[in-house]
Amino acid sequence: MNVQQMMAEDGANEMETSNARQFLTFRIGKEYFGIELEQTREILEYTGVTEVPLMPKFLSGVINLRGEMVPVIDLAVRLGRPAIKVQRRTCIIVVEIHAQDQDHVLGLLADGVSEVVEIPNQEIEKAPSFGANIRAEFIQGIAKRDNQFVVLLDAANALSVNELAHLVETELQ
Question: Mean pLDDT for the chain?
């Protein structure tokens, strides 16, 4: 390998480590989570949802978003926590997940939105294999912001349309 190749490789490595991603951070209980900003469409003030009978506990109901029916998932329940108690800062984060060559719009119930943060890739640690009490495939990493850990969710896995549909079918049987 010559010096030019080494410099080019070092430059490529610097570019990789200097890359940063933007996350919308939000709170569920006392824990902070993040989801990639590019998957986020909007944040809605919680004004209620229409409950759907015989649905699993993680499905709070549906909302009408400009003529489109959007299922609202209680992210706390989906992550194995107690259900969110609606309060003044409770909101719905509308996300778009691409799966099976289609875009799926989902609402995520959260206790409150914090901020949009830019996190350099080198500051994102792999999730520990223990202690998080969340399925490992739901987590793409953990970052530390202002002395607080932020669990960065892998929305494609945590909100897998196939798995959610399977859970709905299983509970209905």
Answer: 80
Q: How far is CA 63 from CA 32, 44, 87, 141, in A?
A: 25, 11, 18, 30
> CA–CA separation, 111 vs 107, rounded Å?
13
**Domain assignments of the chain as residue spans, ordered by start:** 23-172
The percent of residues in the chain predicted with pLDDT above 70, rounded, is 75
For the chain, give the longest Cα–Cα distance.
Answer: 67
DSSP 125: B
Predicted TM-score (pTM) of the model is 0.78
Q: Which CATH number fits domain 23-172: 3.40.50.970, 2.40.50.180, 3.30.200.20, 2.40.50.140?
A: 2.40.50.180
Scanning the structure block, which residue is given the tokens 């202690």? Answer: 131
90: number of Cβ within 10 Å? 15
